[in-house]
Amino acid sequence: MEITLPFYDEYALKVYIAELLEIAGKAHYRLLAYLSSLFENQVIIDISTNTGYNSYALAYNEKNIVYAFNSQNNMSNKYIKECSNIKFNTANLCDTNDREIWSDLILKSAMIFVDVEPHNGTWEYEFYQFLHNHNYQGLLVCDDIWYFKDMRDHFWSQIPETYKYDLTQFGHWSGTGIITMNDAYIKYFPQKSDNNDWTLVTAYFNLTIYADNTTSVRNKNFYMTHAHACMAFPYNLVVYCDQESLEQIKALRPTHLMEKTKFFVFDFDELKFVEHPGYENVPFSVYRDRILTNRKNKPYQFDPRNNASYYLFCVARYLMIKHAITLNPFKSTHFAWINICIERMGFKNLIHLDEALTVHRDKFSTCYIDYLPNYLVNNTHEYFRYGRCSMCSGFFTGNAEYMYRVCHEIESKFLEYLEQGYGHADEQLYSPVYFKYPNLFDQYYGDYLEMITNYNYIYVNPQSPLNHFIRNSFLSGFYSGCHKACTFLWNSYAKNKCRLDCEQLHQLSYYKQMSEYYIETNKKVLSTPSTPSMLSVPRKQSTVITLLYDVGNPQHIASLFQRVLQWIALSFPIIIWTDNVYCEILHNIFQHKNNVKICKRNIDEFPPNIHMEKITKLYDSYVVRNRSKTKDTIKYHMLMYSRPHMWAESIKENPFNTETFICIDFGLVRFTQNLSVIEQWNIKDKVKMLLINPFVASDGDPINYFHATRHNVAGGLVTGKGENILKLIDLFDHEFKEMLNNDWCQLDEAIMACIIRKYPDLCDYLYGDYSGIIANYEKIRDITNVPNIIQKYLDNRMYAEAQRVINSIDYNYSDTNKYFFIDFSVLTNYYSMDGFLNPIVKNMLDDAKFREIAQKNVNNLKYYKEIHDHE
To answer: For labelling alongside 582, which of 21, 178, 215, 616 has CA 20 to 30 A away?
Structure first.
């Protein structure tokens, strides 16, 4: 969703109200103005108890009329009062009598904005039912859907998912939601995440009935009061509970979500571990007695709330998750544990849950709060002298395989420490498992209040990971872990997900550079134990999708057939798209390979062909100064427009059942002597492409810029998870039609360039020129064109982007690579690393071979801070 508002700032400044200029995501005024631009000559209704700011934002499109209803009449700004397309009224639409009077206008309006006090959710839901029952066809926009518990419990959670969209990231920090009962508006909103492949697992057992209960333990009412949000999550949900709590918990689940819910009833005392020889028939009641005895024999300081029963409940999480994975009632690939009282951790966690689930991390992933070193964990008596915080157990995720394995290992650690006479909380079982099997984990960073919020990026409280995990892992010599956390925080900062003040930037720059220094230069990495993961997951295969078509250059095709042995040598499955000309030839070449599928379809049979007449016209009328009409023929253009459709059909059919794909042109064998190297690539979920010439804001609009073929991004290689490539293809189709609507015509690479300029975080990139399209996939080895990319970023003051390219250079590959790595680092580090020079670069400058760089940059280097200035 892209909010474009021409001259909005000037519009807001007319009334001298600073709040109207707040960025989207902090205030909703820009969103309201944008929504008003979706209609013309329509009525918009504002039901607010505010000072008229909402009405003014809604009046941004002067072709609409805003009816502002405010019974308190708080509006005092004379400029807003005089706004020609706002009609103010003191009728109270919260009153059913007044609403009846205005019902015709309400039901004919294009949009209604609601921000009324008190925010109890009851009136909002009743108003929604009124609109729904009268077949209202407009938009209902509601403020504060997350911040107020009553709004969550009584209103937002009760609306079926089909009708609602959460636009908080574009609206107000307290939560902005849109409800529509008209599919015509869906195109304006971000596509909803498909998280149906997740199962969330939660539980509640009434522990107050047991003898070890104390008054400091939270009672049942406490948990039920805070369980509404968890029970209202619109995902597959498995709930474990005791018989007496079942109906009370069921009552919290909205009716429209019951088909996505499975309840399992157990007697807590009778729970038993599985797949632990010697313990399968031991009920939990026995463990309670053992824990109580252990705590008498080896007393320690602990939170009274964490009594023996509560400790057992926390350990039961892993037993229940294993049970849910084994039965898998929703046929899910990924599972998450979530505390039933998760809303206690703050409403921002609720907002970010959907985003967290879209990541689909396979490994066991939880919030790493503080680093406890391995030597402390191995000193069992000291480790359990009091309750210690390390990783968070209130929310964690993983695919079925990793999740089951880690849960089983946590159970094993519980039993092991039980036999030794120790045990405090389940979270203290995490570090011992992590140090034994580090390859099973993929953590993120924050504190308890950010256990979901910071899953994808650090959005809030960056000081916590700086003070705790980053600082303590560095001081403990765990440099690889420190560097990983620094990179996670740095990426969050670079993408404007969080703010860092000057001192925080100093800290982050210091730890990031010094940890990298110890890793890369001195090789003093104190890594976690190297015990291999028993999972033994081999490198997964990807399906290779390629194409070979007759576009009028038979000599070129003949040269490719001379290299066809490289294709035959691949072990990965291959899908080849071709036409009548080459179909039989390809069948003969690959007839002995049972993992090759050849799809015959001529170019004119793909969807872009319906635009052939317009493309032909634009091919002649839209001037491309450097177009080669012998190579870049109309037929070639049509092939390039059709190529994404070949990818899409292959991915959707997925005949070889792979998660990731390598979409690579048949002709790219020109740039390698060994195509099989692609089978060694680490194909990640995110789409990856070759960036040759960044298309940046200073290049201007596409219609003028693409009067020349610029080769911004290569369309001949796209890798990633199938669903992510499909998203790219949807954007390509949209951008292709936009190009035709705007009367310009260029190759697919120009269309891809438009996409990645609009959505800069959509893809990862390899950098260079076509000569490096194979060699540079993991790290830049072929330096061709790389200096041009970096320089363009520097010229546009895009220092973070320039640093990203520099960091991709394999500087040990050649002296040439090392020269450019050093030279550009000197120019960029100051901005991208907050005034510090990368210690690796500093060491390289001492090499006589690169002394000229130091001499050339003597004036730049004197501005850098010394590391010891921060120590």
So the answer is: 616
